[in-house]
Write a structure and sequence with these properties.
binds L-homoserine; six-stranded parallel β-sheet; 17 strands; eleven-stranded mixed β-sheet; alpha/beta
């Protein structure tokens, strides 16, 4: 039986969950994969009482001849980047859930892995326990992928679900997510869409073998979504989700993260609470959806163990390290349908003025929602047909200069 020694760098929630997983499922892994996994050394700066050799110097892990797989579980870009590169250069397979380090450095890491004939594996970096990286790389290698829509951030999905299903406002739903341990005390990375943007970059690079600069990904968080938007969206048959989008579009890649109205009948619309799901369209396979827990020790460790098994079986298998250059579509060029919520004065000619500006900027109106009021201000919800974003931006800018619109309350893209 093949014996595989593992070094774990960083023994927080994830690192310790990996060790626990190996202890608990040792026999299952032997029965299913024929590999005897053993955690040999843990690197952590804290004094821990653990049944493994403990060091605070990562070089002791990567210089150990017996260890063939290093699990990097520190998180964040630094010092993880240096450690991952050092381990690859010492000819260790590296397995990591570190979305930030992978999104920012995939090309460098893959080149180092290829040069040293080892594997860099990061299944746990997107969707926690959901198998998505390996299915895209291996199971769907024969298909031409065209579109990926992901609900890849559990925190924001939890908040939006609570807003939608229980009528809570953003601040209350965020507080509840923090109390449950889903959201960090500083929720910026989740609610502003950074976490989802790292994951979008990783999905796009894996699915389209293209180099994606995560900083060029258009990103918008969920803070500006109000209970009004949730309710209007519901009334017209939609739910609001934070989507990570990666798709081919006229020879370019369209990669972005933002809240979107999703038709209630879309498979992703039913993904609620802190669950994640990734919807993939390919040809000839058609649409697929991968669903599960996107965070947490157990699910994340499950993805890490699957990578360790792949690494252990990867003798002489070359890491595909080629990422081609491709232009990212600028957000102004992207064509979408839009939901627009406006506050307008309740007087003659307002609607006519708005539709005239839309017509001038070549924005076609698909639907208008207005409730009867005896007040002086009316809420108008307008849905457009598909239009390049720069046209809509121009129309809204023209409208803001005229007294026909008091306030543009929100503009949300509609996904289909
Ligand atoms: N902060 C992430 C989330 C954790 O909320 O989904 C998993 O990457």
């Amino acid at each position: 039986m093949k014996k595989v020694y593992i070094g774990i760098i960083g023994f927080g929630n994830i690192g310790s969950a990996v060790a626990e997983f190996i202890k608990k499922n040792h026999q299952v892994i032997i029965a299913n994969a024929g590999i005897d996994l053993e955690v040999k050394t843990v690197c952590d700066t804290r004094k821990l009482h653990i049944p493994y050799s403990l060091t605070s110097n990562y070089l002791e892990v990567i210089n150990d001849q017996e260890i063939s797989v290093v699990v990097e579980a520190i998180g964040g870009e630094n010092p993880a980047k240096k450690i991952i590169l050092a381990a690859l250069n010492k000819k260790k397979h590296v397995v990591t859930p570190n979305k930030e380090a992978i999104a920012k450095n995939m090309k460098t890491f893959l080149a180092a892995a290829a040069k040293n004939k080892v594997q860099l594996l990061f299944e746990a970096s997107v969707g926690g326990g959901i198998p998505i990286i390996q299915p895209i790389k291996e199971s769907l290698a024969g298909d031409k992928l065209s579109q990926i829509y992901g609900i890849v951030n559990g925190t924001t999905n939890y908040i939006l679900s609570k807003m939608s299903l229980e009528g809570k406002d953003f601040a209350t739903a965020l507080k509840e997510a923090q109390d449950k341990g889903y959201a960090e005390p500083n929720p910026t990375s989740d609610v502003e869409g950074y976490d989802a943007a790292y994951k979008a970059a990783i999905l796009a690079m894996v699915a389209f073998q293209a180099e994606v600069d995560w900083q060029k990904i258009y990103r918008e968080g969920i803070k500006q979504i109000s209970q009004d938007d949730i309710q209007y969206a519901k009334d017209i048959g939609y739910v609001i989700k934070l989507l990570a989008i990666a798709q081919r579009d006229e020879g370019k890649l369209d990669v972005r993260v933002h809240p979107a109205l999703l038709p209630k009948k879309h498979p992703l619309a039913a993904v609620s609470d802190n669950y994640n799901a990734i919807y993939v369209k390919g040809a000839p396979v058609g649409p697929l959806m991968f669903y599960g827990q996107g965070a947490g020790g157990g699910p994340t460790a499950s993805a890490i163990i699957s990578d360790i098994i792949i690494a252990a079986n990867s003798k002489n298998k070359n890491q595909n390290s080629k990422l081609r250059k491709i232009n990212l579509k600028k957000i102004g060029e992207v064509k979408s349908k839009f939901y627009i919520r406006l506050e307008v004065p309740d007087r003659v000619g307002v609607l006519a003025g708005i539709s005239k500006i839309f017509a001038q900027k070549k924005v076609s109106i698909a639907a208008v929602l207005q409730q009867e009021t005896d007040g002086q201000v009316v809420t108008l919800v307008i849905m457009t047909d598909q239009v390049a974003e720069k046209n809509l931006t121009a129309a809204l800018a023209a409208m803001k200069k005229r007294p026909i619109v008091k306030k543009v309350c929100n503009v949300i893209r509609i996904a289909s």
